[in-house]
Amino acid sequence: MDIAESIGFVQFWGFTPSANLLETSSNSEKKIFLSGLSDIRHILRTLSENSLSSGFPLTFYLHENTKEVLARHMLFIYLINDMTLPIRERVELFLEVYGNCLIRERAAEYISQASQNLIKIVTQHKNAPSLKSIFDLSALKFKERDDLEEIFRSWILGVDFDMVGLRDQRLRYHYKERYDHRENLVDWDYHWGYKDIAPQVNYRHYREWRRSGIAYEYRFATYTAPNRTLSAYIPGKKKLTKDSVLVRGFWGDIVNTPYWAFGLEVNCCETCTEILNKVANIERVHHEGDISDFNLTKMLHQMETYEEYHFPPEKDRMRAYKKMWSNEEPKCEEIKEVEETKEEDQVETGNTENKDRLGAFERFSVRIVPILEQISALGMKSKYKGFFDRVVIGGASSIDNIQAISALGCEECLFSIEGVNFVSILKKEQKEEAMMGIKKVTEGAGWVEVARNQTWTSYRKQGFSS
C-alpha cells in the first residue's frame, strides 16, 4: 500500500494532538517557526493556555510546501477571529470546514464570503478588513500572493468542484479490486490498527468518514456542498502525450482521519478528562466529536475572555441540549430563566461589541507570517540565521535539510520534530524505523534530545545548557 496515496499527497490536517509551543511564560518577544504542520492546532493551544497569564509579543512564521494548505491556515485564523459569530457557531464552522469533504450550504456561503475578504488582505486592498494587521505578507513573493488570490477565488460559490466524484476516484484507486468489499476492509482497519491508538474515535463515525468524508455532523444538518478548501493541484502527466501538467482534485487523507488534532486528548483538568473519557456498558459516553468540540470551545473561550473554561455540569449540559434540539417557543415560566441567563449568554456569544478579533491576538500582539520558500533557501538568508526561538517540523515537512533547519534557530532554540505514532496505517516496525531515521539525522546535526512525548521529540543544539 502506498502510504502517501493513503494519507494524502496534500496534508490538510495534522496527525498529532495540539500542544503548547511555549515552555514557560516570558516578557520578551518570541518568534516561532512552524513548518509542515498542516493546520493551526498548536497556535490555538499556545494562545489559549498562555492567555491566562500576562501577554508578550508572539510572531508565528507559518511555512508550508503547499499553497492550498497555507491558504486554509489564513481562512481558519480569519474564522476564529470573526467576532460577528458566537463561539458556538465558530466552533461548528471550524470543525466542519476543517475535516468534512461535504459541508452545509451555509458553510459554503461563509467560505465564499470569507474568501473575498482574504483576497482583499493578500492584495492589500484599501477596503481590506481590519484583521489584515495580523498578517505580515512580507515573506511572500508577488507570484505567491497572486497564487493565494487564485486559491481564494476558487473557493467562491459557483466554482465547480465535484468532491463526491473526485473522492470516489481516490477510493477506487486505493481499494482497487477490493472496492466492492471496502466496508469489510474499513472494519478490519479500525479493529486491527486504528482502535488501539485512537479508542476515543467511535467506530460508526470512523466508518462514515471513510465512506463519505464527513467527520463532524451537527444535529440534522444536510451536508451536500463541496468543501472547496480541500481542492488542490499536484504535478501529473497527460495519459497520451505524457506532458507535465498540474491536476486539480481532492488529494487529501482518505484513511487516517482528521480527528487527531482536537479529538484525542482532553486539554483540561483531571475532572474534565475523566468526564469526557467515561465508559458505561463497555461504550464510551463521549467520543471524538465531543472532545473536539470541547477542546476548541475551551480554546476560543479562554482566548476571548482570559478565563478558564471547564466541561459544564450535567444539569447545564442537559439544559443546553434541550435548547439546541428543541424548536418550541419558550413557555411562560421559562421567560424568567431566560432573562436570568442573559448575561451568561452574552459570554457565549463572544461579547462581540466593538471587537474585531480574539482578545489573545491583541494581548500577545500576534503576527502571522506566511512563508512558501524552501527551507534550504531560508537557511541561507542572513535575516533568518539564528532568528527563531522555537522551531517545529511537522509531518508534511522534511528534515533532509537539517543543517538549514539548525541554522534558523538561535543558540537557546528548542527544536521539535513530530513523530509518526498516530499514522494508523504504519506498522510498529515502520514507526520504529522512522524514529531511528530521525535520530540518525538529528545526531548528525549535533542536536541533543531533551524531551519526548507522543506528539514530538524535542532537541537543543549541542553545547547549550539550560
Automatic annotation (TrEMBL):
GO annotation, biological process: axonemal dynein complex assembly; motile cilium assembly
DUF4470 domain: residues covered: 12-103
Subcellular location: Cytoplasm
Superkingdom of origin organism: Eukaryota
Transmembrane intervals: none
Protein's name in the database: Uncharacterized protein
Keywords annotated in UniProt: Cilium biogenesis/degradation, Cytoplasm
Domain Dynein assembly factor 3 C-terminal: 135-449
GO cellular component: cytoplasm
Species this protein is from: Stentor coeruleus
Family designation: Belongs to the DNAAF3 family.
